[in-house]
């Protein structure tokens, strides 16, 4: 008898809510169009937007049902007859608006990026979202310069750790702030010059102490809430405060303090910026791949979790237990 082919699986959001409401389902493979590529996904990265999207709290609200996940890595399994430059067997990173939590995906060739030669699938699946956001924040928006002081909040998280690593590449003095000694140890290994443990001392006092009262030139903030509000009190003249996310709540700016310091508050939306100006994305991607191939940047994947344990994997981010990134393994 011929070998029975198992149907591919995916995580499906049929009702908005916490990760536990997501379902693991099988599905029939979609037919391949002439200008499409089928990728056998080996790993998918978990990002906070996935959690927010599944809860209905993200700016992008896909029609139900949908599969979460904005980034994955795997092997090209099939290529449409009108596709050039992509071959079966190529190891690739896949960029998506959603749909990555699955065994396979049908995508356009423009959504594919070669997997850096030294990366495994989990590293490839957790690379571009975090490092792309850090790049857009620090370079396109923050204009971080050599010799400036960079304060990174949530430095043990995926995007925060990427900012620590990239800040050192750009020649900044990096102050990493995080919630545990373990997270700070990884941040130090990735280049942080100074470490601040939330709860040991108010971080605004630590920044003033470290900078002899001058303050930070750039603040990279994926946390928000009180963290953002207190950051305004430890900035240098002309500082740039980068709003990356709001995992700790929405912060309110004291406009008088911004005025006194001649400071700027800048929203950072790496994906939307590329959709509006594709040229930005080309430069960013080329630079990130060069740095990755040279061994200068690399995701820290603290957990690799089977696809069927997706809720537990997502909870690691919600409960701040990940150091760097979490990957689903197919």
Structural class: alpha/beta
Integer-rounded radius of gyration:
20 Å
Q: Looking at CATH, which topology of the largest domain would you report?
A: Quinone Oxidoreductase, Chain A, domain 1
Q: Please report the first level of CATH classification, the CATH class of the largest domain.
A: Alpha Beta
CATH architectural name of the largest domain: Alpha-Beta Complex
Number of strands: 15
Under CATH, the homologous superfamily of the largest domain reads Medium-chain alcohol dehydrogenases, catalytic domain
Gross morphology: globular
Average pLDDT figure: 94
Oligomer: single chain
Main beta-sheet strand count, sense and barrel state: 7 strands, mixed
Low-confidence sequence ranges? 1-5
Keywords:
alpha/beta; Quinone Oxidoreductase, Chain A, domain 1; Rossmann fold; six-stranded parallel β-sheet; disordered N terminus
Written account of the structure:
This protein has 330 residues and is an alpha/beta fold. It has two domains: 9-127 and 299-329, Alpha-Beta Complex (Quinone Oxidoreductase, Chain A, domain 1), CATH 3.90.180.10; 129-271, NAD(P)-binding Rossmann-like Domain (Rossmann fold). 30% of the residues lie in helices and 25% in strands. It has eleven helices and 15 strands. It has helices at residues 48-55, 121-124, 128-141, 158-169, 181-189, 203-210, 226-231, 255-261, 270-276, 278-293, 310-318; strands at residues 9-12, 23-26, 37-45, 71-79, 91-95, 104-107, 112-114, 149-152, 173-178, 194-197, 216-221, 235-243, 264-267, 301-306, 325-329. Strands 3, 4, 5, 6, 7, 14 and 15 form a seven-stranded mixed beta sheet that branches. Helix 3 packs across helix 4 (158-169) and helix 3 packs across helix 10. The longest helix has 16 residues, at 278-293. It starts with 8 loop residues before the first strand and ends with a strand.
